[in-house]
Amino acid sequence: xxxxxxxxxxxxxxxxxxxxxxxxxxxxxxGNMHQWGEGYPxxxxxxxxxxKSGGFVIEDEGRVVxxxxxxxxxxxxxxxxxxxKWLDDExxxxxxxxxxxxxxxxxxxxxxxxxxxxxxxxxxxxxxRDNTIMQHNLLKHGFTYCGIIYLAxxxxxxxxxxxxxLRCKPEAVDKRDSRPTIARSIKTLxxxxxxx
Length: 196
Prior knowledge:
This protein has helices at 13-29, 43-51, 108-117, 132-140, 164-167, 186-192; strands at residues 3-7, 55-60, 63-72, 94-101, 122-127, 144-150, 156-163. With 196 residues, it is an alpha+beta fold. The chain is globular. The protein starts with a strand and ends with a helix.
């Protein structure tokens, strides 16, 4: 199968919104009844991600099967964290929001995380307390639970961070794969095209 991750375009909006609806159904069927209420994420939110060069689609054989936002820091809602602390609160980071896919598209989270860590070694993600699927994936992929943040709406979210250098001991890193220590900009993606 041919899978690529590329920047989203305005012409992808209809496909992205279908992916969002599929993701909401996955949430509801797993007991996550409150995250992503009616109208969220909206086309305006997705367009805002794109305007920041942070909206990405995942394609299988030319079909959009996933979406995520990969945005540069700072994330305003991350300035204060409660009942814990960030692994590092000094380094710049990227934040991942709005991760969504069809239920029949497998390994989306793994591919998205590999893509993100190929561009930055310091990633933060937050999720709803009821989103046990996301919590499982975050821990499985080496993220550390850091505490609680509050959205602008006042809604609580569980906050996670992974700094690639802190995930494993230096001697455990394959010397042929230097991605964990590289913090490349999204400009590289624009210059070189999509990641396959």
